[in-house]
Amino acid sequence: MARTGRPREFDRDRAIEAATALFWAQGYEPTSLTQLKASMGNISPASFYAAFGSKEALFREVVQHYLATYGQVMAPLWDESLSPREAIERTLRGSARMQSARAHPAGCLVVSGASNCSPENEPVQTLLAAERQRTRAGIRACVERAIAIGELKASAATDILPDILTIFFHGMTCEARDGMTSKKLDAAITSLLTLWDVNAVKPGAGKRSQKR
Amino acid sequence: MARTGRPREFDRDRAIEAATALFWAQGYEPTSLTQLKASMGNISPASFYAAFGSKEALFREVVQHYLATYGQVMAPLWDESLSPREAIERTLRGSARMQSARAHPAGCLVVSGASNCSPENEPVQTLLAAERQRTRAGIRACVERAIAIGELKASAATDILPDILTIFFHGMTCEARDGMTSKKLDAAITSLLTLWDVNAVKPGAGKRSQKR
DNA sequence: AGACTTCCATATTAATTGGTCCAGAAATTA
DNA sequence: TAATTTCTGGACCAATTAATATGGAAGTCT
User: Fold this and answer.
1) Residue A44 CA distance to nucleotide C10 C1' (Å)
2) May I ask the CATH class of domain B72-197?
């Protein structure tokens, strides 16, 4: 965008990426300006503020960047060309692999990026909470679509199914950060999805109207 | 214990309780000495350090206090007089009710108490991580006991069952903090436990050898 | 060229962080 | 009462927090 004037000496995109790694690993508040500037090649405060405005503004950019890249593992949730079950399964498996990958910090930035916050940074907390709400809505929409198109039966079990999936989804962050492997997460997903299948209208493998 | 000398003017137990609420709501790092002292009745720094030693020492006491009170919802895990399923169910339902109660901050202190931490406070993070590991071990022991005494079949599904339960258990913290009601959490648990029942040797309600 | 724009380095801001120290007050024990 | 013990209030500490101000260097465009 900047046409005239002295060009910036550091790479803004790389700087965002570095900031993402820091916020992801430590969270919003514990990550200091000093760390951020250092991760961007020891740029000066003036350069930092000229480029990003403030710590909070940078964080919002980081979240956008995260959602546009790593966070795309959840895109299947809103892809209506997929069957609802396929959408859920791809989201879960994709997230599991992403969250436990070693190329970046573990877990999900949206879940753990601002979980410890003092009152003055409540806006940051709210930002991520809204994003989690969007995830919940996406999961719920998938289940409702499955019921609407006759893939799932409407029942008490399918009423609560979105919540179970969401709890599990958000729980993966804690486990991934504590070191659970991608393999184990994936196996857990396989097993969890039987909760979908037992409520399917035409069960693929185990036909049965399960009720407890 | 202090027999002679001027007695402390503030109630140490109430102070711990107040500190617990603060750490629980905000986490370790964002909670400042100023807030802590204020919550204890505006005591002086001298009184604070005489009574607790340091912020970190206080946090360790708070964690102990938490485990000895609120955390007792997990006691069934290590109560071998209960059937393994009963132990798991009581732990999950007790935690769900506790974590979503309105008398104190939502979620679990062990999960979210130090999730955002700068490198210098790694010991605090490690403390909670060890506690979560204890939980995992407890859940795993329950499932293994169930297999040993013939309540559950040994299979791939039961191999991964402890991990599913743990992911779900830790996921409740995120949901509770985001406002999920006790009722919904409880319903989710009911549904989740069908993953146990379909692997039971003598199913209580739905007899079937489910496999996918 | 020369005007203009934007950058960066250094110094500095006020506020807050966790933590220490000392003098004096208040209670207990002998 | 006297000696002892332990608390409290307030001043104070160095370090760090996010953020600004200034002045000059380094580019771009006409």
Assistant:
1) 9
2) mainly alpha
